[in-house]
């Protein structure tokens, strides 16, 4: 088969399937989504895989943790020899004799997939030397070559897929492994850390997070997102009627203002605004649009809490509403992060263009 294999949070397969279908249709591609609830992945079958992959860049997808191009789907694998069918599938589709730059052997991040972690680890150790002997894998890992993925759905069922290192997540399963530091005020700090790692590229993190920049954290208590910004050297106005952890204030970079995050506005333009308030997503989208429209901040990261049903529809509506009400050119990226749950995280920046911005309308 041909098509895209995308990983997602278990339970959000319908949302990812709906997003892939809408975006593929909008880009003029015919195909269909195939998935099962709580499987942790979606396959979008399409005969024009390479062109479709180019039209749907990974950074532009909301519900996909990872995006891969399927080379083969192998069923009925013999537990005594899973290597030979994979090598044969790769040799059948190999072009120009080019090896792959690295190998990841994975499993879906789901209840059914997690027991396969031991198999994936052991099989990867056996497959690598076999691939190198067959000339299918470079002697050393290289980001200059396509990355090979083998994803086990079951012991006898696997996808063989490939990723462009510049258009995919670099982490196994598409999940950055972050450690919660002991002095983090809350686990929500991991959400902002992951957003900065996932939604910004290396150059943007270097250029947009500099010592002395000014930021506001709306709904800051107990201070998780404020703490992350201060660790990057930003000076933060933490807006919340609730208390902040004392060690966050002790950084000397934080001013705590007891005010309503939905009503407060800065006395002068800021470099950053972040917001993780629990509110209706359309209300949050509208308020965030006001910040960008009025020029109160140059870039923002905020969360939209999604309803239990029709989450792709609500996502599309909120992103369209945000872009429309901002009334200025914005670069927008959105993602359901690993540390998100029933929500998505949005990065927006005042800029006429940016690579891989989200085309907010799926049609």
From TrEMBL:
Species of the source: Luteimonas lutimaris
Catalytic activity: cytidine(2498) in 23S rRNA + S-adenosyl-L-methionine = 2'-O-methylcytidine(2498) in 23S rRNA + S-adenosyl-L-homocysteine + H(+)
NCBIfam families given in the database record: PRK11760.1
Assembly behavior: Monomer.
Active-site residues, record numbering mapped to chain: 305
Keyword S-adenosyl-L-methionine tagged: yes
Short name of any one Pfam family annotated for the protein: FtsJ
InterPro entries noted in UniProt: RlmM_FDX, RlmM_THUMP-like, RNA_MeTrfase_FtsJ_dom, rRNA_MeTrfase_M, SAM-dependent_MTases_sf
UniProt keyword annotations, A-Z: Cytoplasm, Methyltransferase, rRNA processing, S-adenosyl-L-methionine, Transferase
Protein name, per record: Ribosomal RNA large subunit methyltransferase M
EC number annotated for this UniProt entry: 2.1.1.186
Domain Ribosomal RNA methyltransferase FtsJ: 186-278
Ribosomal RNA large subunit methyltransferase M THUMP-like domain location: 81-162
Record domain RlmM ferredoxin-like: where: 1-68
Residue numbers binding S-adenosyl-L-methionine: 188, 221-224, 240, 260, 276
Subcellular location: Cytoplasm
Described function: Catalyzes the 2'-O-methylation at nucleotide C2498 in 23S rRNA.
UniProt similarity note: Belongs to the class I-like SAM-binding methyltransferase superfamily. RNA methyltransferase RlmE family. RlmM subfamily.
Keyword Lipoprotein listed: no
């Amino acid at each position: 088969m041909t098509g895209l294999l995308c990983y997602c949070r278990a339970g959000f397969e319908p949302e990812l399937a709906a997003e892939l279908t809408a975006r593929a249709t909008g880009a003029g591609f015919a195909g269909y989504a195939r998935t099962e609830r709580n499987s942790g992945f979606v396959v979008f079958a399409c005969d024009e895989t390479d062109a479709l992959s180019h039209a749907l860049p990974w950074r532009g997808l909301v519900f996909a943790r990872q995006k891969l191009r399927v080379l083969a789907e192998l069923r009925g694998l013999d537990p005594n020899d899973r290597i030979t069918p994979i090598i044969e599938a790769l040799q059948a589709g190999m072009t120009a004799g080019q090896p792959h730059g690295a190998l990841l052997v994975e499993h879906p991040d789901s209840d059914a997939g997690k027991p396969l972690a031991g198999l994936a680890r052991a099989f990867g150790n056996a497959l690598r030397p076999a691939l190198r002997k067959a000339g299918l894998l470079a002697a050393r890992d290289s980001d200059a070559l396509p990355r090979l993925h083998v994803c086990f759905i079951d012991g006898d069922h696997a996808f063989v897929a490939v990723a462009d290192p510049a258009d995919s997540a670099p982490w196994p399963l598409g999940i950055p492994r972050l450690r919660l530091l002991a002095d983090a005020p809350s686990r929500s700090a991991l959400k902002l850390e992951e957003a900065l790692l996932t939604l910004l590229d290396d150059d943007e993190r270097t250029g947009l997070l500099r010592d002395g920049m000014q930021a506001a954290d709306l709904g800051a208590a107990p201070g998780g997102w404020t703490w992350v910004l201060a660790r990057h050297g930003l000076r933060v106005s933490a807006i919340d009627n609730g208390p902040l952890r004392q060690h966050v204030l002790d950084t000397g970079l934080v001013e705590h203002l007891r005010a309503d995050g939905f009503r407060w506005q800065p006395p002068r333009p800021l470099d950053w605004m972040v917001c993780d308030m629990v509110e209706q997503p359309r209300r949050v989208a509208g308020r965030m649009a006001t910040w960008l429209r009025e020029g109160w901040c140059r870039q923002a990261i905020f969360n939209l809490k999604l309803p239990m049903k029709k989450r792709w529809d609500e996502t599309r509506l909120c992103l369209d509403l945000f872009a429309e009400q901002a009334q200025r050119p914005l670069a927008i990226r959105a993602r359901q992060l690993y540390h998100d749950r029933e929500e998505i995280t949005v990065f927006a920046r005042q800029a006429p263009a940016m690579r891989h911005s989200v085309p907010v309308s799926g049609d």
